[in-house]
Amino acid sequence: MKIARNPGSFHLSVIFVIVIALIATSCTRDPDRSMTSTEKPDNQTAIEKPDNQTAIEKPDNQTATAKTDELSRDPFVAVRRKMVDEQMAKRDIVNEKVLDAMRRVPRHRLVPEHMQKHAYDDSPLPIGEDQTISQPYIVALMTQLVDPQPQHKALDIGAGSGYQAAVLAELVESVYSIEIVESLATSARENLKTLGYSNIEVRHGDGYRGWKSEAPFDVIIIAAAPDHIPQALVEQLAPGGKMVIPIGKRHQELILIEKDLDGTVNQKAIAPVLFVPMTGEARK
Predict the structure, then answer these.
(1) Which top CATH class is 72-283?
(2) pTM (two decimals)
(3) How far is CA 152 from each of CA 131, 189, 246, 249, rounded to the nearest angstrom?
(4) C-alpha distances out from residue 27 to 13, 21, 34, Å
């Protein structure tokens, strides 16, 4: 016997089965996995390098902090750099090591407190006892002329407040500094020690005859003017060494003296200058 079939009911049955299958499939799908797949771009963004970039920028923050600390310790840092750039580099000071030394030495710590605001002016300053601290440019010029090297031993005559000795100490192995005014010698010694210079020895005495027990010296700088070149200083200059000294009374000239390896001495006039006169035996 044949069973009669209704085509319409057959199609409805098929559609009903398909719908049931779709509902079952959607119910068994893992919602967490679906969310994870859609969140992958965000996770990739998080893994990408904003945090790493932030980490890379930390040294800049540390540098900024270091600069802030430096300024808090030494409020004259910017002024000193300006002094070097405008008073020296724009003139004829070309030795980078000398320029760097001038940037490092805190000149304001080596002048009387009431003169600190003028410490980086383009001029000499009084330091008491009728003595002066030399113009910064002149200190740089004299230092450049003697061409100090790390292994050198230097003699500094006319220590004053210790500024020239400090500049030399940044560049050479050891510095021997003589000051004829006892109070200045004492304060220079104390100030240089406070600044942390361990390679400078300051002595109270007459620099006219140098420091024979420590000779010879590769570098000699004299910051007071005799009317002639002291022979004892020439003798204490090492072969290959250089000495710079102002010579004269009313009209002074800065003289560069060089001793060749064979002992031959040559001298050259550099520029007109004005220093305090050398006292003590130089006046006899």
Answers:
(1) alpha beta
(2) 0.75
(3) 28, 21, 22, 31
(4) 21, 10, 13
Q: Measured between alpha carbons, how far is residue 140 from residues 29, 51, 146, 228, 269 in Å? A: 82, 47, 10, 23, 17
The SS3 call for residue 126 is strand
pLDDT digits (tens, 9 = 90+) for 94-127: 999 999 999 999 999 999 999 999 999 999 999 9
Residue 211: partners with Cβ closer than 8 Å, 6 or more residues away:
155, 176, 178, 203, 217, 236
Residues composing the chain? 284
The first and second tokens of residue 112, run together, are 């009387």
Distance (Å, whole) CA 178 – CA 222: 10
Q: Bin 176: left if φ > 0, else alpha if -120 < ψ < 50, else beta.
A: beta
Residue 214 near residue 154, CB atoms below 8 Å: no
- Of 223, 214, 207, 264, the closest CA to residue 241 belongs to 264
First to last CA, the chain: 155
Closest CA to 175 of 158, 198, 205: 198
Query: What does residue 214 show for φ and ψ, rounded to 5 degrees?
Result: -105, 0
Active site residues: 134
pLDDT digits (tens, 9 = 90+) for 22-49: 444 444 444 444 344 344 444 444 434 4
Q: Residue 219: which of 241, 239, 234 has the closest Cα?
A: 241
